[in-house]
Amino acid sequence: MFPRVFLNAKEEVELQQGFPWVFDNEISAVKFEAKDGSGVKQASLADCDVADGSVVEVFAKGGAFLGTGVINRASKITVRMIGRDYADKIMADTEEYYLKKIQDAYDLRKLHFSMHDSYRLVYGEADFIPGLIVERYCDIKKNVYLVVQFLSLSCEVFRKEILNALRKVIKPYGVYERSDASVREKEGLREAACWLGEVRDEVITIRENDVLLEVDIAHGQKTGYFLDQKLNRRRVAELCKGKRVLDTFTHTGAFGLNAVAGGAKDVTSIDVSEEAVAMVNRNIALNKAEHKMKAVCADVFDVLKEYEKSGEKFDVIILDPPAFTKSARNIEKAYGGYKEINLRAMRLLNPNGILVTCSCSYFFDAEHFYGMVMNAACDSKKRVQILEKRGAAPDHPVLLGYPKSEYLKCAICRVV
After folding, report:
1. Dist. CA 165–CA 85, nearest whole Å
2. Is 57 helix (H, G, I), strand (E, B) or coil?
3. 106: Cβ–Cβ under 8 A, 6 or more apart, which residues?
4. What's the CA angle centered on 110, arms 108 and 115, to 5 degrees?
5. Residue 96 has pLDDT above 80, yes or no
6. pLDDT of residue 10
């Protein structure tokens, strides 16, 4: 028999709603076969003789079956659910099981993107493979690259099956692993970053919304590029014709270059990272946009203050900062940072100017985010109309019951 994890009373509700994790404090007991052959035993989580990485079945306190997962006592997230079937059915053919999951994820993306698009192929728990992130990049030579992240033990133990499925379904030109995130340490795993198979170019050029962008898949942030804003960038481009645009926290210059493609008169893109600005300049050259766009290496907070003092004005301002908080503890501090940049941006806009303001922090939820925009408007003595509330592109599906899958807020506003 597979080890059985029993929850405390009433802890099954979230799992039944679709939540894919079981935390250590939600477990009352584990039933397992003793390694010494003495039969089936039941013990607390701390005393159970079940190896991390084992497949387990999860049950409610009253005995109702809830699904199958992978146990990892090294993590506060002790069980990550991998399916709603019994373990013997899943484990009968794990190659076929993960092949179907990858095929399902690919079929979903094909509804929204062409074969030459770049997009997120697998979005972890939201695609029912906890801890797995896979980006699919198609370069301008039509070569398909996969960048994979194994962020939890629950997918690491099925590494072979997952990689085989990806190669069978996608037939990639190259596969690069970016399992270099600190979260692996919490899972008891070492970080890793390398080519899996043939070594290819680490820096590639992709096309997004008719804009050319250089992507460093080996050294760029996270998986090399932020694909979640793709459709938001295209929408913003439609609002920039003949406008003077300020693009902040630009990273690769993608928002700014989309604005140029949309007919912007003048674009200034700002980032504090010298490496990012160097990449923006290369992307500007790739798109022959030197006559309309410039990149500035500076702290956005400082630049917004300076622009306000000098009386600079813009028609469109884009605020796409990194997450100011990655935990619930720092929400108030993050609130101050978000409010400051939004308040100053509102003051820098011409009458009826467009503010595109974003937050990619799950913990800074929609209630905090839109409340912050309202208070920034009050303090800047502006009236703001929210024209659109947007989120991530459809390659980042939101799984009901798993609120962490809905993290990106993107508001398009008119500042009166």
Report:
1. 20
2. strand
3. 121, 169, 170
4. 150
5. yes
6. 94
The alpha carbon dihedral of 212, 195, 78, 94 has a sign of positive
**308: helix, coil or strand?**
helix
Enter the tokens of residue 52: 């991390």
How far is the CA of 47 from the CAs of 42, 53, 97, 332, in angstroms?
9, 16, 31, 39
Helix residue spans in 238-365 (DSSP H): 254-261, 274-286, 300-310, 331-348
Radius of gyration of the chain (CA): 24
Tokens linked to 320: 């796409």
User: Do the Cβ atoms of 148 and 196 come closer than 8 Å?
Assistant: yes
Neighbours of 247 (CB within 10 A): 33
What are the percentages of helix, strand and coil residues in the chain, rounded to 5?
35, 30, 35
Q: How far apart are CA 54 and CA 373, in angstroms?
A: 46
Residues 115-126: tens digit of each pLDDT: 999 999 999 999
Dump pLDDT digits (tens) for 282-307: 999 999 999 999 999 999 999 999 99
Catalytic site positions: 360
Alpha helices in 187-250 (DSSP H): 230-237
Q: Are 199 and 175 spatial neighbours (Cβ–Cβ below 8 Å)?
A: no
One-letter amino acid at 6 equals F
What confidence tier does 99 reach under pLDDT thresholds 50, 70, 90?
very high
Q: Is the pTM of this model over 0.90?
A: yes
Please state at what angle helix 331-348 crosses helix 366-379, rounded to 10 degrees.
40
Residue 177, strand partner residues: 148, 194
> b/e string for 114-133 if b means 16 or more Cβ within 10 A?
eeebbbbbbbbbbbbbbbbb
Give the pLDDT confidence score for residue 27 in this predicted structure. 97
239 — phi, psi (to 5°)?
A: -100, 0
Tell me the torsion sign for CA atoms 372, 374, 378, 380.
positive
